[in-house]
Amino acid sequence: MAAATSASLFSTVSSYSSKPSSVPHSRLQAVKFNSLPSFTGLRSTSLVSGSDSSSLTKSLRGSVTKAQTSDKKPYGFKINASYKVAVLGAAGGIGQPLSLLIKMSPLVSTLHLYDIANVKGVAADLSHCNTPSQVRDFTGPSELADCLKDVNVVVIPAGVPRKPGMTRDDLFNINANIVKTLVEAVADNCPNAFIHIISNPVNSTVPIAAEVLKKKGVYDPKKLFGVTTLDVVRANTFVSQKKNLKLIDVDVPVIGGHAGITILPLLSKTKPSVNFTDEEIQELTVRIQNAGTEVVDAKAGAGSATLSMAYAAARFVESSLRALDGDGDVYECSFVESTLTDLPFFASRIKLGKNGLEAVIESDLQGLTEYEQKALEALKPELKASIEKGVAFANKPAAAAAN
Prior knowledge:
Layout: H1 2-17, H2 25-30, H3 42-49, H4 55-59, E1 83-88, H5 95-103, E2 108-115, H6 119-127, E3 134-139, H7 144-148, E4 153-156, H8 172-189, E5 194-197, H9 202-215, E6 224-226, H10 229-243, E7 254-256, E8 263-265, H11 278-289, H12 291-299, H13 306-324, E9 330-337, E10 345-353, E11 356-360, H14 370-394, H15 398-402
Parallel strand pairs: 1-2, 1-4, 2-3, 4-5, 5-6
Antiparallel strand pairs: 7-8, 9-10, 10-11
Helix pairs in contact: 1-3, 5-13, 8-9, 9-14, 10-11
Pfam families: Ldh_1_C (PF02866), Ldh_1_N (PF00056)
Family: Belongs to the LDH/MDH superfamily. MDH type 1 family.
Subunit structure: Homodimer.
C-alpha cells in the first residue's frame, strides 16, 4: 500500500511537468469530480492515466468539489503555483511529513519551514524534490517574522506530542504558550492569512488564537480554523471497513470538538446511506473518539498519530488553497467560531471560499438520531470548559500565562 501510494503521489507531480494532456475536454466533464478528492492534483492523474482513481485517491475523501469546466481554470490541467504556505513546527513528527505533502501541491509556489531547531536539514532534504515550490528554512524567534511575510496559509503543528497516559488536557500549558507566541507573530506579519491550528488541545488552542488576534485588532473568524480533518478521515476509514464500502464513496460528517467525547461522528448522515445496528454505532463512535489513544498506545511511547495527522492536515491545506484559487465548491469539517449551537466554537462542515469560511452547514444538525442528540448534549459541557480554559489563558497577564 505504501509503495502504491508513493507511486501515485509522484505520478501526480510528473503530470504537471510533462506536456499538456491530450485528454479531450468532454472526458473532463464526464468524470464524477464530486466523488474525487481535491488533493495534490490526483484528479488529473487519474484522468491522464485512464484509471478510475489512484490508490491514494481511493484512500482519501478530500474536499467535495464539482467539475471545473471553465476555460479559465480547468483544475488538473492549468494550475499555477502561486501561494505561499508556512509550516510552524516543521521539524517535528507532524511537521516533517506534512511539509512533504504540501511540497507536492501544484498550487504552492513557496514553502516556508520554521522551527526552533533542526529545520535547516528538513528544508534541504525537501528542496531536492522536483516539485514547483521553493523551500526556505527559518530557525528561532529572530527569523519568525521573515518566515511569515506575505504568507497565504499558516499551518501550526508546533508543540509537544501526546505520550502514553497523557490526555490532551495534559498538553495544555506547554502548547498553549507555543500557540499564543506563534499567533502573535502571525498577527504582526500576515494578519490576512488563513490560520490552521493543529496543536492540541485544539478545543482550547483555537480560542487562544482568537483572543490573541482580537487583542492585535486583526481577528477575522472566517480565517481561523481548528484542523479536525483527522476525525473525518478516521470516520470514513472505519465505516468503510466495517460496512465493506468503497472508501472513495464514504463521507461521514464529524461535529463537536477534537478530543474524546467532544468528537461526534454523525453516522446517520453517512454517504452513501447505510444502516447501522445500535452496537455498530456505539462501537464506531467510541473507536473514532479514541483513535488517537489507539495510536499512542500502539507506538508505546515512541510518538502519537503523526502520519495520519499530517495526511489529514495536508488535505485541509489543499482544500484551503483550492478555495483561495477560486474553486467554488469546497467543503470540509473544521472547528471554527460558530453560531450553530450555544457554544462560541464548534466543529461542523463548512464551505470554504476565497475569503475563508463562507458558510456553516446548518443542515448537519437537523434530523439527528436520539443517540446523536444525546451525545451532542453530553459533549457540550466538556467542550464549553475547554473553550473557556483557552479564553482565560489568553487573557491572563504574561507572567501568569507562562506558569
